[in-house]
Amino acid sequence: MSAIFKREMRAYFTSPIGFIFIAIFFVANGALFSYLTLQAGSTSDISSYFLMLLFLFIILIPLLTMKLFCEERKQKTEQLLLTAPISLIDMVAAKFFAAYTMFAGTFLAATVFNLIPYFIYCEDVNLASILGNIVGILLIGGAFVAIGLFISALTENQFVAAITTIAIIAALLFISFANSYIGAAPIRVVLSWISIFSRFYDFTYGILNFASLLYYASIMFVFLFLTVRVYENRRWA
User: Fold this and answer.
1) What secondary structure does DSSP assign to 49-101, as a single string?
2) Distance between CA 42 and CA 39 in Å, rounded?
3) CA-to-CA distance for 228 and 222, rounded, in angstroms?
4) Per-residue pLDDT tens listing for the chain (237 residues)
5) In whole angstroms, what is the distance from residue 88 CA to residue 110 CA?
6) Maximum Cα–Cα distance across the chain
7) Residue 192 burial (CB < 10 Å; 0-12/13-18/19+)?
8) DSSP letters along 155-210, please?
9) Is 132:207 a contact under the CB 8 Å cutoff?
10) Hey, is 124 helix, strand or coil?
11) When you count CB atoms within 10 A of the terminal residue's CB, does the N or C end of the chain come out lower?
12) Are 154 and 165 in contact (CB under 8 A)?
């Protein structure tokens, strides 16, 4: 497992993908943070920053996940993985943790970089809200990485994997806005239940809701499990 993890981490920095991801994340993240918080000078905008940050993931997460399995199939190295002395669970977990490490490491580094001037210039700092938002973002990022990993396992075309992942993440993020246009209460309840935003709001107030934690963890588990199943079927095909 560690060998695959190290190989994937190395691949991010021996190709432009890792540098492009970090560069876009830092530039867009810094501009967004500066506009929504430092200019306003109040803690009321810190949650707005984290909420808007979720929309950056529509583009950024697929950058990390689109090649994870697509590249193996394209370069005909997939069979080496399937016949290696490692379980499919370890293989999928290694690739997931590599992508998640890139995401979480970049996010945390950018956040620390942004919060330094925020703590200096803003007098009324709600530490619980900041920590809650960070935890929520890390959980949502993990869920999106698991989704992207699963999509990457379904195709050898990186472009198709990226576009499909973008569409799914965008749908999960925008589904909350559909509620205001739907008259049927049962449908609104269902959409609210699966909405990424409705589960994230507690975190913006510094509340670690167990149901929300379980929801994001379940998304990760389900899509990682489906990825393992894809390769179980492929191994015996």
Assistant:
1) HHHHHHHHHHHHHHHHHTTTTHHHHHTT-HHHHHTSSS-HHHHHHHHHHHHHH
2) 9
3) 10
4) 788 899 889 989 988 888 999 999 999 888 888 877 766 555 556 778 888 888 899 999 999 999 888 877 777 777 777 777 788 889 999 999 999 999 999 999 999 988 887 777 777 777 888 899 999 999 999 999 999 999 999 988 889 999 999 999 998 888 766 766 666 667 767 777 777 777 888 888 888 888 889 999 999 999 999 999 988 887 765
5) 33
6) 62
7) middle
8) -S-HHHHHHHHHHHHHHHHHGGGGGGG---HHHHHHHHHH-HHHHHHHHHTT---H
9) yes
10) coil
11) C
12) no
Provide the residue type at 233 as one letter.
Answer: N
Tokens of 54: 């979720």
At 69, list the tokens: 């399995």
Tell which residue, 72, 67, 98, has the closest CA to residue 1: 98
Q: Name every residue whose Cβ is closer than 8 Å to that of residue 32 and which is 6 or more positions away in sequence.
A: 49, 52, 53, 56
User: What's phi and psi for 164, nearest 5 deg?
Assistant: -65, -45
How many domains does the structure of the chain reveal? Answer: 1
Compute how many other C-beta atoms are within 10 angstroms of the C-beta atom of residue 78.
Answer: 19
Phi, psi dihedrals of residue 33, rounded to the nearest 5°: -65, -45
